[in-house]
Amino acid sequence: MAVSEQAIGQPTERPSRLSRMREGARTLLSSKTAVVGLVIVGFWVFVAIFAPLLTPYTPTEQDYTAQNQGPSADHLLGTDSLGRDIWTRLIYGAQVVLVMLPISETFWLPGGVAIWGVAIGLLIGATLGLIGGYLGGWIDEVVMRVLDAMMAFPVILLYMIIIAAIGASATNVVLAIAIVGIPGIARLVRSLALDIRTRDYIRAAELRGESIWYIMFVEILPNARGPIIIDAMLRVGYAIFAMGTLGFLGLGLPPPSPDWGSMVAKGRQFILSGSPWAALWPSLAIASLVVGLNLFADGLREESLRYQ
Amino acid sequence: MTEDILQHSPILKLEDVAISYETRYGDVEAVRQVSFEVHRATTFGVVGESGCGKSTVAFGIVDFLGANGKIVDGSIKFQGRELVGRSEADLRKLRGDQIAMVYQDPMQALNPSVTIGDQLSEVLTTHRGIATGEAWKKSIDMLNRVYMPDSANVMKRYPHQISGGQQQRVVIAMALLNNPALLIMDEPTTALDVTVEAVVLDLIEDLKRDFDTAIVYITHDLGVVARVCDYVGVMYAGEMVETGSVEAIYDNPQHPYTQGLMRCVPRLGTTKESSRLYPIRGRVPAPKDRPKGACIFAPRCDYATDKCHSEHPQLRDIQNGHRARCFYSEVIDPDAWEPPEGLVADVPPALGAEEDLIQVSDLQTYYEQASRSVLSLVGLGEKQYVKAVDQVSFSIPKGKTLGVVGESGCGKSTLAKTIVGLEAPSGGEAHFLGFDVTLPLSNRDLKLIQELQMVFQNPDSTMNPSYTVGHQIARPLERFRTVTKDSVYDEVIRLLNAVRLDGSYYHRLPRQLSGGEKQRVGIARAFASRPELVLCDEPVSALDVSVQAAVLNLLMEIQREYGTTMMFIAHDLSVVRFFSDYVAVMYLGHVVEIGPAENIYAPPYMPYTEALLSAVPIPDPTAEQKHIRLEGTVPSALNPPSGCVFHTRCPRRAEMLPDGGRICEVERPPWQHNTDEHRIYCHIPLEELRKLDPVVTAV
Amino acid sequence: MFVRDYMTKHPVMVEPTTSTVEAQGIMAETKIRHLPVVETGKRLVGLVTRERLRIPPAKLSSLNVWEITRFLSNLTAKDVMVKGKDVITIGPDATLEDAAQTMAKHKIGCLPVVEEGIIIGILTEVDLLVQLADLLGVGVPGVRVTIRVPDRLGEFAKITSAIASRNWGIYASGAIPTPKQPQSWDIVIKVRHAPKEELIEVLQGIEGQQVIDVRET
User: Fold this and answer.
1) A232: enclosing H helix or E strand
2) What is the 3-state secondary structure (H, E, C) of B77-92?
3) Do C10 and B40 touch (CB under 8 A)?
4) Contact present, B201 and B228 (Cβ < 8 Å)
5) Which of B4, B5, B42, B76 has the highest number of chain C CBs within 10 A, making it the mutation to test binding with C?
6) Distance (Å, rounded) from C-alpha C44 to C-alpha C109?
7) Which residues belong to CATH 3.30.70.260 in chain C?
8) Which neighbouring-strand residues pair with B12?
9) What is the Cα–Cα distance from B463 to B395, expressed in whole angstroms?
10) Residue among B50, B461, B463 whose CB faces A4 most closely
11) What share of chain B is helix, strand, coil (3-state, %, to 5)?
């Protein structure tokens, strides 16, 4: 079918970075689902960043006079079995997950455990996927079989094996999240690469004698960014779940780290005895953050599809 | 005589039909003021470029407009009955019994999981309540009527087991089973090879006569219209701008747009130097930019006056039922037309004879086919090869163009990819500029790579969507260091101008460009490194005819300016004729005839070339063209025929060779030299071939 | 001269549920007087004619103004059509003469052509009239001669051999018994590319036959 020659609207010069960002923001905000998701995630990021300002307590402060209490004037969401304020622990927990990566006692990196885990997984997984998808042949076979092997383990089991092997600390949890995420990301990127490499502009690049790394990272990868970003968001959600599960199993960040999973683990015992708060609030927090990320990803996907 | 007295009313009559689509931005008018009539046993062609609304009209007749399309004005009368506003139930009945549609892609009408026989009989059993056995028999009869070979067996097969041309025949058979009064065909042969298309077009003619059906035939191909249609309606930007008999429209077009179209269609038989293709300047307006109170073609018309910009012309009778939507039809004389300034640049005279730039001999590209046997799992099975390119030899002198023509599967694309290095050859030699080009890309010197570039077919995938136009043209400049770092920007602008795009395109992204513009950027990118040889793989096949003209002119200009040698791959014989100095005809991986263009289009012909030329629809209803049709389909390249690969379908060997042409089955033909440069791959002696008449004799 | 080759294929048709108002409109638009009524698969179930669309005066007089409009607007093809079994039809392999005879016998103006219950065309009196005219070559330039011959074997052959001897051809011909004269037949032939005088001379030379009319067309 012949391609239409209809006149297309014309910008005359390169739109500035600001206007491109504005354009991007407008696209994002026009999807209701994305906005809702953004609000939820934004809320957690906000409270994580401004944690010290939002609560008079510290996450480790224990008050034996106020154990397992429900929501009250003093404690917004109640206290846990050691008298620690749940709200405080929640927002400091959000910090660890989303905003701050504690490498050691004194040193930390911006971006939380979940974010780092997914980022590193993305880096390695995307590279593997590109190599397999673009180069094909026996290299692809080898890569795929390795990934298959990794995927053969149930996720939780894999986490447990890794943590058991290298110990539980923030950085190790990051590594675990990365390792577990690699196969899924690699597969996704590989299938995208398989499709994109059939395009003529890849042929044109080959005809310029470009190196395979150039073609993979400069020509192919930017055109796959849509699905990859959306997948990454979902993986942050999975990572949070995973941290929660690890914490629940006692394999997560070492206590007294306020990660939500451990909170649920500790608070579990008291549900039936009338104070479910220690378990309830962190569970809801995990759920809300994952839902928020999912909604945001969905909204992005809707918008990107509509654009095409 | 009888016809004059028995004036039947038209089977289909459209009056002032307007169709709109609902979109996020409000209602968008797709077509308006469309009026025409179709009588029984005639074919009415609706012709126009993409986006003109011709398919919308076709679908609108049966109200297949989708959830957001609606007919907002006008009347559509089928057999005197108004269709607009009819209930879906009524329309469905009509669609089943009396109106049938055939689409471009036969798989849209065929269920891939049901046998052909079941699908055909189902039409009869559900609509007419005929018993299954009887329906089966009638279906076989119908398959025979559409000249389906081996019809009884085809009934038991599934759609994917027969070829595209045969699928289309099945769809036509299905459409005719209920003997509809009206048949709507939407580009039914566009996706088919030329020789297959010719057979299907013949079929449509036959059937029209036998069944007395009224046919509405939608197409963009002016050659097909000339062959198949009795009356024509030309559409532009949603309006019907001219209607009339096919002879009147081709011989004496009245609307400036039709006149422009006639000027940009390549016709078989014209030479490169003597006639240029003249594109129509400007672009088709988008639906929301179509003014209601002015002539819609005025912005692109060479004759537009103030009246044209302020008043909307009606479709009026010029002469004998020939109607046009123009105020000045009687006054405009198309023969006196002069191209406006800057439409086509002056062309310096062609270079004289030069020495060969590239020489290819006995090139072979075989693909290994994964065999299904268990033995092959352990590496012991027999290897099968798809012989995509087999023993191809040719050379191209510097500065000339070699056109490579053939139908799908003939290996022309593989040949181009092999030369350029995207595929590795399995044998043979190829020399270019002192380099050996049988090496794969990874082993080639950067200097060599720089000199061999390619223009691709599909405008949508030729550019990387994530980078700007400027960046993509600059990249080869940077990579090959064609100019210094500081001059890159200027050079990009210069290249953009050379392909007739202004500097503002530098910052645009591919999605902001139209198809023709993307192709131009592709050309700029290919020529950026000033290569010695450019291979163009069907560069204009995906473009509208008026845009094709512009891009072809552009390629010619650039070639002349830089002295580049070109290899031009196409399936459209008329385009290749216009454009090439030499032509090679390929069939099933072999070159079967090669030589200067004038020699290919005139006798002596290799029988396949002759068949190809007689199959091409010529945009001139009065031209006389031989009627040679090939039986069967192209054999599989996995198992090509022995001896001469064309022997299974050759129409000439039985009559022109002793023994019915036995030798063709057994022995490979020799190369017979008609002249120094023209050779034919055939057993039939040259003197015999020379005696044949030319395929086309224009009036 | 079979019905199949001369019928009008794809006749205009309506369904039983089509209103009579619409049917009238269709007849006016397409200028036809007979409208077959069909069901799915073009199965013929009835025929609507102009006469049938007229309401019997007896019925009319019993209704008042308001009722008339409602009555009229509710009428469908089914209500006014000639019912299926009463519709005279003909098969596609019948000859034109059979069709003519059927039409005359039943005093009808049109014959739906039906094959296995499905309507495939329609033949009207006008179609037959046109064919009759064509049969004798109306409108074609030539010489039309009427010859009266005795009712005997071999008379026709005499004419044809006379024409053949001069290498002329007979473009059209017809023969009927002379009206009101038993034992006599009138044969009409149309000859082209033959000079009128010579032709008359040749024909007058045939024994026992009489040229009774000659015209040039």
Assistant:
1) helix A221-249
2) EECCEECCCCCHHHHH
3) yes
4) yes
5) B5
6) 17
7) 137-216
8) B38, B78
9) 30
10) B50
11) 35, 25, 40
Q: Is the dihedral of CA B384, B387, B391, B393 positive or negative?
A: negative
Kindly report the number of other CB atoms within 10 A of residue B79's CB atom.
25
CA A229: distance to chain centroid? Answer: 10
B51 Cβ neighbours under 8 A, 6+ residues apart? A4, A5, A6, B237, B284
CA distance B370 to B382: 10
pLDDT at B456 over 90: yes
Which residues numbered 41-60 in B keep a CB inside 8 Å of some CB on A? 49-51
Q: How many CB atoms lie within 10 A of CB B59?
A: 18
Q: What is the pLDDT of residue A138?
A: 92
* Residue A1 pLDDT greater than 60, yes or no: no
Question: Residues near A52 by Cβ (< 8 Å), separated by ≥ 6?
Answer: none
**Are B453 and B468 contacting, i.e. CB atoms less than 8 angstroms apart?**
no
Q: Can you tell me the distance from the alpha carbon of B186 to that of B199, in angstroms, rounded to the nearest whole number?
A: 17
What residues contact B178, with CB distance under 8 A and at least 6 apart? B96, B97, B98, B100, B123, B124, B127, B128, C41, C42
Candidates A248, A233, A246; CA nearest to A290 is A233
Find, among A238, A265, A243, the residue nearest to A253 by Cα. A243
What tokens does B10 get?
């038209």
C-alpha dihedral, B199 to B204 to B205 to B210, nearest 10° = 130
Q: Considering only CB atoms, which chain A residues are within 8 Å of B420? A: 207
Paired tokens of B586: 């390929």
| pTM of the complete model | 0.82
Cα A161 from Cα B23, distance rounded (Å): 54
Residue B409 to residue A205: CA distance in whole angstroms? 26
Which CATH number is associated with domain C3-132?
3.10.580.10
- pLDDT (tens digit, 9 = 90+) per residue, B236-265? 999 999 999 999 999 999 999 999 998 888
Task: Tell me the C-alpha distance between B142 and B180, whole Å.
Answer: 14
User: Strand, helix or coil at C123?
Assistant: strand
Tell me, yes or no, if B513 comes closer than 8 A to chain A by beta carbon. Answer: yes
Q: Cβ(B197)–Cβ(B75) under 8 Å?
A: no
- Quick: pLDDT tens for A199-235: 999 999 999 989 999 999 999 999 998 889 888 988 8
User: Which of B42, B91, B138, B179 should we substitute to test contact with C (largest number of C Cβ atoms within 10 Å)?
Assistant: B179
Q: Is B475 near chain A, with CB under 8 Å?
A: yes
* Torsion angle, alpha carbons of B603, B606, B611, B615, to 10: -60
- Output DSSP code: residue B266: -
Residue B307: phi and psi, rounded to 5, are: -60, -40
Please tell me the distance from the alpha carbon of residue A142 to that of residue A149, in angstroms, as a whole number.
11
Mutation target for B interface from C6, C18, C30: give the one with most B CBs within 10 A: C30
Contact A84, A61 (CB under 8 A): yes
Question: Cα B357 from chain centroid?
Answer: 30
Question: Which of A3, A7, A9 has its CB closest to that of B542?
Answer: A3
All CATH 3.10.580.10 domain ranges of chain C, comma separated, are 3-132
Look at residues B202, B216, B233 and name the one whose alpha carbon lies nearest to residue B43.
B216
Residue found under tokens 């009368």: B77
Q: Report the CATH superfamily, name and number, of domain C137-216.
A: ACT domain (3.30.70.260)
Average pLDDT over every residue of B513-518:
88
The complex scores an ipTM of 0.83
Overall residue count recorded for chain A in this entry = 308
For tokens 């095409």, the residue is A308
User: B458: closest CA among A208, A198, A220?
Assistant: A198
How far, in whole angstroms, is CA A205 from its chain's centroid?
Answer: 33
Residue type, C178: T
